[in-house]
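Section 5: illustrative case.
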């Protein structure tokens, strides 16, 4: 059996003053563990978006009519609130699971040897985005599902997915200076793709805010736009993104790009095709809730796919410390 080290008073004081540093002294995770922790945070970031969509699509947005309590008199949902209260309160509780996943990613990154500040910064960035979005989620409830606050809530979740994706990618590479794998024109084309995708997602929030799924059975304010016209604009942007992805794949083939960018672009194109099919089917079938939920999940995958394409255009080697080489024969002779 492995003897458990005796914890002294000094150890206890150190753990209280700086628990992350204390854990880092006692535990060294493998690279695989750190990468899995980052992936868990990313998966939970997507899950919170999907479950938030389920809250909206089931009309449970005001299942808990106040915040931070579920009601004025109860912290949790009550039987009188029915299934809507359970769904909305369940989504609130899932935020704690997300916090746990982000916390694990922070602890794993902090305990990695050698220490990489870039990873811990990305982990803490996720934490503060989660906290900010939790407060914004409370504001959404308190203002009765105002569509503009709902859109901001979703966009902040999109930012969380971006940071989580970046952390996941960074755990698999070093801290050396990035080396581009393709030429500048190709990189500029990808940035245009990223910008078009951001605009596509932003317009998608307007479609939701103006559309029929208000998030609650009561009268909820909507964005004063014709949602069908906004949907057509959204569809045009989607075709632009698809065209850019398809053109990028041909350009990468023409310049004989490495396998990484080619594979990531192919993956993105396939995701976009699937998302497009869902989008058109839901539009022509009067927006069934299940398909709208799948479309929200697809938007997360599209965003992750675009970011993976962007991050695949460069490599970052490990920074190796200068290690004295073995003494040569001439050195030994002079000594």
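Designed sequence:
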């Amino acid at each position: 059996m492995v003897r458990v080290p005796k914890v002294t008073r000094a150890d206890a004081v150190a753990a209280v003053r700086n628990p992350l540093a204390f854990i880092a002294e006692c535990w060294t995770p493998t690279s695989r563990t750190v990468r899995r922790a980052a992936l868990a945070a990313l998966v939970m970031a997507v899950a919170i978006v999907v479950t938030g969509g389920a809250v909206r699509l089931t009309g449970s947005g005001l299942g808990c009519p106040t915040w931070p309590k579920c009601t004025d008199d109860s912290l949790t949902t009550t039987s009188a609130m029915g299934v809507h209260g359970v769904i909305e309160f369940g989504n609130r509780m899932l935020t704690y699971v997300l916090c746990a996943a982000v916390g694990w990613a922070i602890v794993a990154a902090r305990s990695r040897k050698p220490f990489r500040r870039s990873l811990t910064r990305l982990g803490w960035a996720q934490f503060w985005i989660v906290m900010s979005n939790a407060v914004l989620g409370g504001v959404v409830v308190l203002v009765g599902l105002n569509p503009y606050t709902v859109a901001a809530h979703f966009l902040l979740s999109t930012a969380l997915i971006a940071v989580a994706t970046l952390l996941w990618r960074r755990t698999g590479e070093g801290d050396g200076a990035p080396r581009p794998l393709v030429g500048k024109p190709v990189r500029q084309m990808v940035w245009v793709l990223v910008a078009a995708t951001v605009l596509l997602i932003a317009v998608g929030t307007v479609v939701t805010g103006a559309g029929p799924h208000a998030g609650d059975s009561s009268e909820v304010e909507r964005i004063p736009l014709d949602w069908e016209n906004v949907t057509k604009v959204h569809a045009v942007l989607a075709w632009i993104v698809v065209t850019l992805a398809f053109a990028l794949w041909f350009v990468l083939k023409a310049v004989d790009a490495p396998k990484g960018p080619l594979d990531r672009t192919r993956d993105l194109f396939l995701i976009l095709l699937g998302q497009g099919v869902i989008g058109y089917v839901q539009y022509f079938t009067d927006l069934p809730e299940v398909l709208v939920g799948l479309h929200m999940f697809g938007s997360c995958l599209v965003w992750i796919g675009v970011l993976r394409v962007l991050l695949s255009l460069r490599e970052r080697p490990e920074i190796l410390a200068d290690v004295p080489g073995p003494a040569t024969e001439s050195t030994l002779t002079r000594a």
